[in-house]
Design goal:
This protein is of the alpha/beta class. It has a single domain, classed as 3-Layer(aba) Sandwich (Dihydrofolate Reductase, subunit A), CATH 3.40.430.10. The protein has four helices and ten strands, in the order E-E-H-E-H-E-E-H-E-H-E-E-E-E.
Length: 181
């Protein structure tokens, strides 16, 4: 008997609940150094992941970093309504329709978990469609005042169970939740 893999959201947010500045900029994240030991759980997450899923704006932001594609060994999917989106990274595909069917099928077929990278609108879609199984939210001790919210566009009410709260010497806190209902 096989078990379905999990869709895991691993994302950083400001104290005031924003994942990016209004223009999508992530410069505020670099104000917090890596902890003396570890990397806020990023390496452990990456080792458990076989697929990434992200929205178009998140994809464009990653491409805009001007570095090599950070997920060359993984299959990556960009959820977009733009069927002509030009993909500029290896192993990356567009997903333009039937998101729920695709993710439900992927969870049954893949050997590793699926990382929902972002952004806020896509996170809400995953919540509203019942596709998100686990969240690792890294809270950065910074208020940025305005930006793109972690949960955009009215997510439906759902219950989550706290699995772990881990603090770091930098003031960063990781909160790990699993879906409770």
């Amino acid at each position: 008997m096989t078990t379905d893999r999990k869709v895991i959201l691993y994302i950083a947010t400001s104290l005031d609940g924003f994942i990016a500045r209004p223009d999508g900029n992530l410069d505020w994240l670099t104000s917090v150094p890596n902890p003396q030991t570890g990397d806020y759980g990023y390496a452990d997450l990456l080792n458990s992941i076989g697929t990434t899923i992200m929205g178009r704006k998140t994809y464009n932001e990653i491409i805009g970093f001007g570095v090599d594609w950070p997920y060359p060994e993984l299959n990556s999917f960009v959820v977009t309504t733009n069927k002509d989106l030009k993909i500029q990274s290896p192993g990356t595909y567009t997903l333009t329709e039937n998101l729920k069917d695709f993710v439900t099928d992927l969870k049954k077929k893949t050997e590793k978990d699926i990382w929902l990278i972002g952004g806020g609108q896509l996170i809400t879609t995953f919540i509203n469609e019942g596709l998100l199984d686990k969240m690792i939210i890294t809270i950065i001790p910074k208020i940025i005042g305005e930006g793109l919210p972690l949960f955009a566009d009215k997510p439906k009410e759902t219950n989550w169970k706290l699995l772990e709260a881990k603090s770091f010497d930098t003031g960063v806190v990781n909160l790990t939740y699993e879906k409770a209902d």
